[in-house]
Amino acid sequence: MALSTIPKPSVTADAPIPHNEERRAQAVIKTGLVDAPNSDLFQIYCDLARDLTGFEQAKFSLFDGESQCSMAGSGVDENYEVGARSDRSKWNVCSYVLLDVEPLIIEDFYKDPDWAEHPYIKSGDAPHAYAGFPVVNKDNYVLGTLCLFNTDPKKLSDSQEDLIKRIARNIAHLLDLQVEQKSLTAEKIIKAADVLSSAMKKASLVDFKNLLLLEAGLPIDAVGASQLQSEGFCDISEGVKVTLTAKGRKLIQSMGLTPKPMKRIKVTGADASELIDKIFEELD
How far is CA 110 from the centre of its chain? Predict the structure, then answer.
């Protein structure tokens, strides 16, 4: 994407905002990651982007209505902090990536007249090369950016650009899954509580908790299990050991709390494109 196709830095303090900013920002908040970032979800994508392009740094950020929020980074220095926020000012280059679904690629900041007044350009502290890829969710909102930085001028090949686009799409897919999982988890808990309430008219939060602990194979207090025992959902042996009965296991199954086996990931192949496809296929 040519820099001329986006608004140039203006004299105002803030960067331009997307036309759908309110809904876009709400979609970011729904991920739950701005206030509780989890870098483990995204670190592999930053590492892959850096390794595949040879750029020195790769960073993934989300943008709520006010700030750029750091989610994960590769090749970053000791000052980088997951969860850190920075202003969406007119000099925040990544803010401009939110304005389009195509990447913003600058081979050399110091030769681009549109950014000549940037304080870091003037001081010589800015990297030369930059490539910002929008992370676009299923509703076509740009939730964040996957950005690459390099000290010296650097150009991405067409194949590299395509690979990073695919990485950005998979980050977006992961964000969509994060939102869906939150909704499904809430629905699952409500369903489980409803089933328990139907099976036990006087069911309490302690009973719900004890069923979860028993399903996980963890010990519970025999005194606290007396209600479950009276309903025939568990046995208490030797006055202390609590175990599920067949009736209890059926209850847990009907509550939807029985865990499913996890799929093992096996990746083979030396070709980078094939390798990425297979990793993403498994992650999906």
Answer: 33
Query: Which residues have a Cβ under 8 Å from the Cβ of 77 and sit 6 or more positions away?
Result: none
- 115, 119, 125, 131: CA torsion to nearest 10: -30
Q: How many Cα atoms occupy the beta-carbon half-sphere of 50 within 13 Å? A: 18
pLDDT digits (tens, 9 = 90+) for 65-100: 989 999 999 999 999 999 999 999 888 999 999 999
Report yes or no: 14 and 90 within 8 Å, Cβ to Cβ. Answer: yes
For the structural domain made of 200-284, what CATH number should be given?
A: 1.10.10
3-180 belongs to CATH 3.30.450.40: yes
What one-character DSSP code corresponds to residue 127? -
Which amino acid appears at position 122 of this protein?
A: K
Please give the structure tokens belonging to residue 281. 């296929």
Output the six-digit token pair for 108. Answer: 């050399």
- Strands 104-106 and 129-136 turn out to be antiparallel
CA angle 217-220-222, nearest 5°?
A: 130
* Tens-digit pLDDT string for the chain (284 aa): 333 334 445 434 678 899 999 999 999 999 999 999 999 999 999 999 999 999 999 999 999 998 999 999 999 999 999 999 999 988 899 999 999 999 999 999 999 888 888 888 888 888 999 999 999 999 999 999 999 999 999 999 999 999 999 999 999 999 998 888 776 677 778 888 889 999 998 888 889 988 988 888 888 888 888 889 999 999 998 778 899 999 999 998 898 876 554 444 444 445 555 655 655 555 55
Closest CA to 31 of 137, 103, 132: 137
Residue with tokens 């042996």: 237
User: What's the Cα-to-Cα distance from 216 to each of 170, 244, 259, rounded to whole Å?
Assistant: 32, 11, 9
Domain boundaries, the chain: 3-180, 200-284
